[in-house]
Amino acid sequence: MSTFTLAQVAEHNNTSSCWVIIRNKVYDVTDFIFNHPGGPQVIMDYAGKDATTAFVPIHPSDTLDKYLPRGKHLGTLDEDSIRELRAASENKGKSRDELRVEEAVKDKPPLGRMINVQDIEATKKILPYKAMAYYASAADDSISYSENARAFSRFFFRPRVMKAVSGVDPSTIMLGFKSSIPIYISGSALARLGHPLGEANLTRGAYKSGILQMVSSNSSMSYTQIAGARGSSEQPLFFQLYKHKSDDIAGRRIREVEELGYKAIFLTVDALVPSNRELDTRAPHYLEEYENQGKIAHGKSTYKSGDVSILGTAGGLIVNNDLDMTWEKTIPWIRSVTKLPIVVKGIQCVADAVLAVEAGCEGIVLSNHGGRQLDYSLPPMEVLYKIRCERPDVFAKTEVYIDGGVRRGTGMYVLKALCLGARMVGLGRAFLYAQSAYGEAGVVHLVRILEREIKFAMASLGVRTVDQLVPELVERVDWQPLSPKL
């Protein structure tokens, strides 16, 4: 294998010849510059340089092997260059954001003081700003994000008393697999932005607490690494598929995860195009000003007239999505590739819930992508209620799940959804924050918090098992209740 010096690599710093260094290996990415999902500037910022720190946290370890032809894997740095890079890294001063994070980590409360989901989410201050902006961002004015939670407040309980409730059991079944509580880890990208072990923390925490996990197409660890993090080969994993516009690439992904033992395909249909997540988009500008202590740098600009980029970290993940999926074409195509159950993630109206049933899907997730896509899309809880009122037969024909807006395990959230017919409730951000701040232990602790709240609410409602949670136990109110303390 060829070896190169830093000076040799530095000569290839333009669109005609662009080399980068990642983990001391040299790659020719010239042909990929204008095909990069995040745009060409992301690559050009590191043309002829070491891109390791930017690349590693957001790309699975097998990315270059999968998507860059072997002929573009040029070789490695020579030993002197490796030592020079190591010395430069050791001597490099820390950024203001890195220093801020160090102080926040020192002041982080002990895990035992976390007693609800809000406590867990409050730990996001320990995240690097880029990670926080990506995890916390919502679409436009955050109306759907806020209403996702508020929608639960329009439903009140009608508890039954004088019921035997000793031995409350909150376990349930999802696609034939048991879960200790009716909550699963929803597919969330880039967990390594918050913690070096990222998705592995989620997988190991799910195993230890007995819940189920959905793995995102855009995970920051490879699907193989995540499967390898399972506590047992029998631990089920589900795969959240962002279908690539190339059927060949999408098919290879599906076959790969099926061979690795993943148990279902969750086809994401509510995030086809990059949305306007301004917190995420503004992150680089905020960090630039923060590092310059409020001063805006007026150096060379890459801005072009008419160019308004909103990609951010999130947008670059989905620019290659298939924009022409249909019920008639896409579901049969997936059936032709795999025998795994198909769940459609992102149902936002009654009509599409019915179409999913007619297409033979084994499940649906009522979701507006956590309020991160189309602002003013209906809260999933309202869609669930509409299905219950207008097409209750859907619940007998497919499994119905819901995500978005869950801030607590008690009546305010999970049990209301279960009473209306949801089988499981997904959480995404809360698990990202938990693993970012406390690793695997944070995931387990969050599940225990939710389990305690759910068991309390079930006993208070007068039920022992989740199948006793029925529509008669909740009532929708038209008056405006006092906003909950979030």
Overall geometry comes to globular
Adjacency order of strands in the biggest sheet: 9-10-11-12-13-14-15-16
Strand content: 5-15%
Query: Which residues sit in consecutive blocks of at least 5 with pLDDT less than 50?
Result: none
N- and C-termini, Cα separation: 57 Å
Oligomer: single chain
Radius of gyration (CA) equals 24 Å
What class, by secondary structure content?
Answer: alpha/beta
Report the strand count: 17
Average pLDDT works out at 91
* Range of helix content: 25-40%
Task: Give a short account of the largest sheet.
Answer: 8 strands, parallel, barrel
How many helical elements?
A: 20
Report on this model:
It is a single chain. This protein has 486 residues and is α/β, with parallel strands linked by helices. It contains 20 helices and 17 strands. The protein has helices at 6-10, 40-44, 52-55, 63-67, 79-91, 96-106, 117-121, 129-136, 143-150, 198-209, 223-228, 247-259, 278-291, 312-315, 330-337, 350-358, 380-390, 394-397, 414-419, 429-461, and strands spanning 2-4, 13-14, 17-22, 25-28, 73-77, 155-157, 172-174, 177-179, 183-185, 212-216, 237-241, 265-268, 342-347, 363-366, 399-403, 424-427, 474-476. The strands form four sheets. An eight-stranded parallel β-barrel has the order 9-10-11-12-13-14-15-16, surrounded by six helices. It has a five-stranded mixed sheet with strand order 1-5-4-3-2. It has a two-stranded antiparallel sheet with strand order 6-17. A hairpin with a 2-residue loop joins strand 2 (13-14) and strand 3. The radius of gyration is 24 Å and the shape is globular. The N and C termini lie far apart (57 Å). The mean pLDDT is 91.
